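Example 259, ligand phosphoenolpyruvate.
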Amino acid sequence: MSPASGAPQRRTLIAGNWKMNGRRADGLALAEDLARRAAGSAAGQLACDLLICPPTTLLIPLGEALAGSPIALGGQDCHWAEKGAHTGDVSAAMLADAGCRFVIVGHSERRADHGETDAAVRDKARAALAAGLTAIICLGEIEAARERGETLAVVEGQLNDSLPEQASAANTVIAYEPVWAIGSGRTPTVEEIARVHGHLRRKLQDRMSDGDRVRILYGGSVKAANAAEILAIDEVDGALIGGASLKADEFWAIAQSCG
Ligand code: PEP
């Protein structure tokens, strides 16, 4: 949301997480479509930062397709180690070498599918920063915790334990993603999102000298129809988008909602 005068400037970030979707032909077509729209926007100036995080297999061709475009590229995960015997994994340095500027860490699907703990997420984020990437650290409560009224305690604990000591506003983005809202078509109320983002902001300010400049994204069933309302909430500095990022019209409409 646009800051009141005197408030820190945080440029809105609209990030697409394609998850395990896309082969070369359709991934390239989607990226090229978005790049054409970005090039055609007023003097090539976007009102927000745009990022797409395709599956690892598509990073190199998409990096080539997006060369010269303002749309940035990111990975969906990285290993905490620099290199070595970690079959099936990718290092942060490899992502940087493939043209990435960002990497998502601690997405709830990785926490659930691969048992990733906060400590593992912190180590991955630390590896991302060491490789020169910006880490997008995901937090969010499961539905049972929400029903018990534990949302703030859960996200505060995840923030404390997932944020590496090297984190700064220049290299770290937080994404608040209630697990029950991901892919479900359900979202928290505007008041609930504002409460969680406000809490995270205060915790970031307590912990970091530039905590008021760290971007906090909301994620969970954001689409063109609700993006403007969500992006206008205090302390919401952008969105992390799953399903709707796979459709050029939807993703572009969400990007248009930030300006
Ligand atoms: C996500 O997985 O990060 C996400 C927000 O998914 P969706 O937009 O589909 O809810």
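Summary: The pocket of phosphoenolpyruvate is lined by residues 17, 177, 182-183, 219-222, 240-244 (CB under 6 Å).
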